[in-house]
Amino acid sequence: MQIRNHFFKKEFGQNFLRNKKVASKLVSILDITPSDLVVEIGPGDGFITQEIELITTNYIGVEVDSELIPSLENNFKNLKFLNSDFLKINFETFLEDNGYEKDTKVKFIGNLPFNVSKDIISGIFHSTTNLAADSASFIIQEEVSQSFVSKPPQMSPIAAVANIYAEVKKYETIAKKYFDPSPKVAGGMILFTIKDDIPTSAMNIEKLIKIGFSSPRKTLLNNIKNSNKYINVEDAFDKTGLGLNARAAELNTAQWIKLEKSLVS
């Protein structure tokens, strides 16, 4: 499915998917059930949308490009589309505003604009305080998808944060030729499964992670001390079982959670 004579907008990061097998897999790994609400971010010309419609009509497409909305509504008469910037959505009222119960399980999907993919994923993590986010399957920049699944002792900052909120699994690499227009880099398919036991202090842990990675060449201890946000840092390291020369990239999720708790107790 393609929209004729569409002028691709660079500011929206539009690189539409053009491989049916990839689209089908992106949908299948989300494991959609009849009770799920599927929220597609940037449906574009509906290439992925048509695969979703084969499974469910319990769907909301959020499209920032107003020129695409008429064609989407014409081609998918049983689906709902919002002309909106996903990054500006108020998740406190999103479900009720669109006729859904607040406890409706939400699954996100999309071929995300590479330039804002990390912001969108972060927004979904933070939405978990306001809605029952279950999982998200995305196509993002290949290099970023690899970074999301990095492990200690070479953990990336975005992986450290992501693992507070979700289990992360990387799927296949998607060649540039499978997009229109072709991007400068390949895409990567990734699945986030939101955890049931997200710590109540998740936002504070996230802030600590950012402090810990603020100067990668310095030890974690020095980065935390230099932030002037915590006291008795050495004692917290001792309680957590961390060496004073530990670096942020070496910590796993459990250690970040324990360290934050030790720093504020």
Gross morphology is elongated
What radius of gyration results from the CA coordinates? 20 Å
Strand order across the biggest sheet?
A: 4-3-2-5-6-9-7
Give the amount of beta strand, in percent.
Answer: 15-25%
Helix % is 25-40%
First and last CA, distance: 56 Å
Class computed from helices, strands and strand pairing = alpha/beta
| Mean pLDDT over the residues | 94
Largest sheet: 7 strands, mixed
Count of structural domains: 2
Oligomer: single chain
Pfam family, one: RrnaAD
Domain Ribosomal RNA adenine methylase transferase N-terminal: 22-196
Family: Belongs to the class I-like SAM-binding methyltransferase superfamily. rRNA adenine N(6)-methyltransferase family.
Binding site for S-adenosyl-L-methionine: 15, 17, 42, 63, 85, 111
